[in-house]
Design a protein that fits this description.
heterodimer; A: about 130 residues; mainly beta; OB fold (Dihydrolipoamide Acetyltransferase, E2P); 5-stranded antiparallel sheet; 2 helices; globular; B: about 375 residues; alpha/beta; Peroxisomal Thiolase, Chain A, domain 1; 2 domains; 5-stranded mixed sheet; 13 helices; 12 strands
Amino acid sequence: MEIPRHWRLKQQRYSLVGEVCPHCDHKIFPPRDICPNCGDEAKELFTFSGKGEVYSYTKIYEAPTGFDANAPYTVALVKLEEGPIITAQLTDLDSTPVEIGMPVEMVTRKMRNDGDERGIIVYGYKFRLRT
Amino acid sequence: MSEVIIAGIGQTEVGEHWEIGLRELAIAAIQDAVRDSGGLKPQALFVGNMLAPNLSNQAHLGALLADYAGLTGIEAVTIEAAGASGGAALRQGYLAVASGMVDVALVVGVEKFTDKIGAGVDAALATTSDSDFEAVQGMTLAAQAALLMKRYMHEYNVPKDGFAGFALTAHANGANNPCAMFRKAIKPETYTKAEMVSEPLNMFDIAPNADGAAAVVLTRRDLLPKDFPHPLVRIAGSASSSDTLALHDRKDMLYFDTAQISAGKAMKQAGIVLDQVSFFEYHDAFSIYAALSLEAVGFAIKGRGWKLAEDGEISLNRKISCATMGGMKARGFPGGAAGVYQAVEAAIQLRGQAEASQVTGAKIALIQSLGGPASTAVSHIFERFEA
């Protein structure tokens, strides 16, 4: 059970809230309060559009505990339009072959169970093809 | 600063040791190393371990192993830096002796993977990545390496079996190592036909998780026993560097900055240049890591590390001998022990005792231990010298 850990990240998980650096305008996700680009303090919140493209991808057949029910699933590095790259699952793929450079958008989906039928279900961002 | 000598080495076979526990494994390697040193008495113990609190529900390995090794009373702590734990523990042992604060340091790396099986092992390994922003997406370390490999192949137009050379070299060399998990050379078809794990990464791009323990005893030259029987090997350089934990946070994920920084600093301290390195023990937990390490350290230009392997240039006594005792791929990947195995194997090479795997005229070794996709890199230069 890791309720507080997932609860306090709800803004990131549900709506891709990161930060923007007031000094160099660098967009930051996940938030870290210190700009990785210029090193200055960056605490101004910034909500990402959720649009991006596939930077790299692969498929997982043998999933870790908590993800078994979803396997096999596709994971990707998604380059957001505003700059940062994030790690996320691709969803709603049907039989569409994935390619590097493919446009995608963020959606909210079930991520995992707690590995225990009475545990919490974690929701968060995944990405689907954008047409 | 004092000169630090590798006085004793010890290792267990790497494999699935169902009948041997974490502590027995570590003690076997410790006893070997202490005996090999001529019975030096350690004053401090540094344990390299990655996942015992998770895999074996056992933390506080320093006190546990000092106790079981009959060394109760000495300083003893665990050093953790994911897959680089062994290299990081070696560096702590080195710093302790080099500073003059400790006369004899014992470094042991130990990992006991088989206390857990299946999805639990993948979940445990995933805790070494960014738990909130990578692992939560159902990522595994193999999938993370696959993402890196896919992008690398895309950017540099690498053919489908372009990474085969790493597994071929490792298995050819592992065949001569009595402690290796796999002691059989493989044919190119074995790689080509291997089962896909996470495309483009197949079974032979991944080092097998396995149990194992390795140990070294470090001391100053003037404290060696009078009749010390081995050729002298010293630690001539030692450095460590860190990068973003999450792969997606890198400015350029296709360049292992920490591998370059730590190797560069260690070579500078040793006063050597790359051409003087006799062999390179890289951290081939995944073949893409080996390629990126060759590039970062400077043996290949960016995007061409795979070609060095394909052309056979990393085989024994070619351009740069790599994974001379099988590397992670054939010797096996015993987690936090991996970096200490590299140290033991490098000492065997420099002592001239590697038999069929011997690098001709081996004088200087570069060994490099990585945590995750080089989120940590620890590099050491070992040098054989005449008394």
